[in-house]
Design brief:
Blueprint (H helix, E strand, L loop, with lengths): L2 H15 L13 H7 L5 H28 L2 H18 L6 H29 L2 H30 L13 H11 L16 H33 L4 H29 L6 H16 L1 H31 L7 H22 L4 H15 L8
Helix pairs in contact: 1-5, 1-6, 1-7, 3-5, 3-12, 4-5, 4-7, 5-6, 5-12, 6-9, 6-11, 8-9, 8-11, 8-12, 8-13, 9-11, 10-11, 10-13
């Protein structure tokens, strides 16, 4: 593959990362307007508009290896993208909450197909020495996708709650790129992956990504509410701080390769330690300084932590990453997103303390996450 074709393929695969991590929360800015429209509906069902995609992403990731044995890469990607765009946009057409949730579930199925491929194809097509940089780019694109989707959805929500779902038209860009530049190779069976014991082989990374995502997802779940309770920072500045956190996470993804070079294997401790310090600042200090500095540390930790775990796992799995470890990592990431609000609803009085505890567990577990030789 020549350099020009390689760059086009890289851009095509990275475009998938713009769509994935914030798939469920892309319409979060419109949730208040949606709640008003469905005022007579059980509010738990309305909240599920945000959370149900994560559940179906996790379920789809579980069966992804089977799909990869039957279908080629381009076929899978395009199927996932079509479900993403159609399911995402169509949810705004209905006034029945159950139909809205059905199409939100389709978004989850689509992302469950796209997510393992968004990083697994980088391992399949690019050399191991290039993967640290590319996984950092992928993480950065995840965060930038969250920023862009949130801003667009917020603007569309000012028109109508139905219009906010048009944010999923972003997937059309990836559809065009994949149609033109993505090869239609069979990825199932690549690298002679083991048919049995896949979880046992990669459980270290699965647990690590679950702890990371649970620890991080406490922030978008409760930051606005907890900060508003303090009464120090006006509401419109809270939104700006949260958007800034996403931008810092973007910078963290771009910085990952340099951090890994500087810290070596100790780089695996950077994210959990920054998470812990960030939540301590939010819990103990608060106010402007605690909110801003804590948000910066949490955002940077997320931006650095995700590519570390994914790149380390991918290097261990080799070309088989897309069909072995990546579906497991994807399932763990989104299951963490789904259960975080539930756990916090039980221990909701001290959400930052809960995040601090999981950050400590993440530090301890990171001892087991060693760089693949």
């Amino acid at each position: 593959m020549n350099t020009k074709a390689s760059k086009k393929l890289m851009v095509t695969i990275l475009s998938l990362s713009l769509l994935t991590v914030m798939a469920g929360a892309a319409v979060a800015p419109a949730l208040n307007v949606i709640k008003e429209y469905f005022a007579d509906t059980n509010q738990t069902l309305v909240q599920m508009i945000i959370s149900i995609p994560a559940l179906f992403i996790a379920l789809t990731s579980f069966v992804f290896p089977k799909l990869s044995q039957k279908f080629k890469a381009k076929e899978l990607v395009l199927a996932g993208l079509i479900l993403y765009v159609v399911g995402g946009c169509a949810a705004g057409l209905f006034s029945n909450i159950y139909l809205v949730l059905v199409f939100r579930a389709l978004v989850g199925v689509g992302v469950g197909i796209i997510m393992p491929l968004s990083t697994g194809l980088l391992s399949f097509y690019f050399k191991p020495e290039e993967q640290d940089k590319l996984m950092g780019y992928s993480s950065a694109m995840n965060q930038m996708g969250g920023v862009v989707a949130t801003l667009i959805s917020g603007m569309l929500a000012s028109i109508s709650w139905r219009a906010s779902f048009l944010v999923y038209l972003m997937g059309l860009i990836s559809i065009v790129l994949c149609l033109i530049f993505l090869p239609n190779d069979k990825i199932g069976g690549a690298g002679n992956e083991k048919k049995q014991g896949v979880f046992k082989e990669y459980y270290v990374f699965v647990v690590a990504i679950f702890l990371l995502m649970f620890t991080f997802f406490v922030y978008p779940t409760v930051f606005a509410i907890e900060t508003a309770k303090e009464g120090v920072i006006p509401q419109h500045y809270i939104a700006i701080i949260m958007a800034g956190m996403d931008l810092i996470a973007f910078v963290g993804g771009l910085s990952f390769v340099h951090i890994k070079k500087a810290f070596g294997e100790k780089a695996r401790f950077v994210a959990p330690v920054l998470f812990f310090v960030g939540y301590v600042l939010l819990f103990a200090l608060g106010g402007w300084i605690g909110a801003i500095v804590g948000s910066v540390l949490i955002g940077f930790a997320n931006g650095v932590g995700i590519p570390y775990i994914i790149s380390t796992a991918s290097q261990k799995a080799g070309k088989a990453a897309a069909t072995t470890v990546m579906p497991l990592i994807s399932m763990a990431m989104y299951f963490a997103q789904f259960v975080t609000p539930m756990v916090l609803s039980v221990v909701g009085q001290v959400p930052y303390a809960v995040a601090g505890v999981t950050a400590i567990l993440f530090v301890l577990w990171s001892v087991k996450v060693k760089l693949s030789k």
